[in-house]
What we know:
The structure holds two protein chains of two kinds.
Chain A: H1 12-15, E1 24-27, H2 37-46, E2 51-54, H3 66-70, E3 74-79, H4 86-93, E4 98-101, H5 104-115, E5 121-123, E6 137-140, E7 143-148, E8 153-159, E9 162-164, H6 179-182, E10 186-193, E11 195-197, E12 216-219, H7 224-228
Chain B: H1 7-18, E1 27-30, H2 34-37, E2 49-52, E3 56-60, E4 79-86, H3 89-97, E5 103-106, E6 110-112, E7 117-118, H4 133-139, E8 142-146, E9 158-159, E10 174-176, E11 180-185, E12 188-194, H5 200-205, E13 212-219
Parallel strand pairs in B: 1-2, 1-5, 5-8, 6-9, 8-10, 12-13
Antiparallel strand pairs in B: 2-3, 3-4, 6-7, 10-11, 11-12
Amino acid sequence: MPTKVIKPVTSAKEAVSGIEDGSSIMVGGFNYGGIPYTLIDALVEKGVKGLTLISNDTAYEDVGHGKLVSGGQAKKVIASHVGLNKATSRLYNEGKLELELVPQGTLVERIRAGGFGLGGFLTPTGVGTVVEERHQVLEVDGKKFILELPLKADFALIRAHYADRMGNLTYFGTNRNFNPIMATAADVVVAEVDAVVDVGCIDPNDVVTPGILVDILVVKGDSYYAART
Amino acid sequence: MLPALNEEEKKRRIAKRVALEFSDGDVVNLGIGIPALVSDYIPEGVRVILQTENGVVGAGPKPDVEDLRFIGAGGRCLSIAPGGSCIASDLSFGIIRGGHLDATVLGALQVDSEGNLANWMVPGGLVAGMGGAMDLVVGAKKVIIATTHTTKDGRPKLVKKCTLPLTAVSVVDVVVTELALFRFRDGKMILEEMAPGVTVDDIRACTEADFAAAEPVQVIKGVAQ
């Protein structure tokens, strides 16, 4: 057993072995960027079903976590944009997929609220739209806000740049997006990285996600997008 | 008489006019489609800081060598301009909702006389989701809609009352089409500029929304006479 301090560096297959039918997973990424491609491929290989997938978007049918949707492994998707993966719309219209569309800023803030121990938050986004329908609307200083509730998950699969053995993470370019926030909001956080370095090799000033939030490290594979992102 | 323009000419005309709406130093988010063309026409001397909601403040043009680790919200590769930064989605939307964005430029399915916007969903159509649009139009100080004046089959996009699901209520500040520029002032929709050779009656004929005409209506800026 690894200590709590030094994080295990495992294969992608081993890292996702705890994800079971019906698990809820957060997956980092925005369009092509910052998706933990290697972990997703392992999850596709494992073939678990009935997943609740929380992610900004559902990528593309044959790209990243889009494969979990098009392959029928997700029973529910909570996302802000699913238009680039036509399978999402098709399965939803066929009644085979639950879909909760959430404005992007609200989605990331709900995840942050989940990870930051908040009971919810008030946002002006969505007031007067269909988003209002399933929510409480509160007035503060004469202005309407929607009460949004926190989101958490069993697992967060995230993509970072470098990790040290204690799980401290840095990020690169536009791969950052939802990843550092999701690292706060799941029971088990698995980070896919370019490389794992020794403790002390990352300047503390460069650490975005402290290692205490991270459970398992996986070095990225060499699939087309994993290699390029 | 309405000018005969193909779709590409319409888009370019709209983008050119929208590009004149910014002041030096403005922080601006450009949506996909026509709004994305706007950055090609920003006048020299106006330094606009482009924000992309996936996490760049200070986006630059498409680089010579593409690197998927630097993409815009539409998934296309971008560069980071000198002085730019890469941020996470929570801060990105904090910037958007928190009033730190001077302007957002987005497309529209419908805009109505009250400044309501519908641009994310057609019932019965492909389910796409609102992405960041609802946050952008609620948070940005100035909401600029860049859209063709009518749909491809000639139906008005500027309507009395939006019939499609709303993106937000009473948020639109400016609408730029290939034919006209409207501003919302004190809750009223005002026709302020028109394409050369177009009359107010021409505009009324293809606009369902109630609007008042400024006196005088100017020739639209940025279009060669």
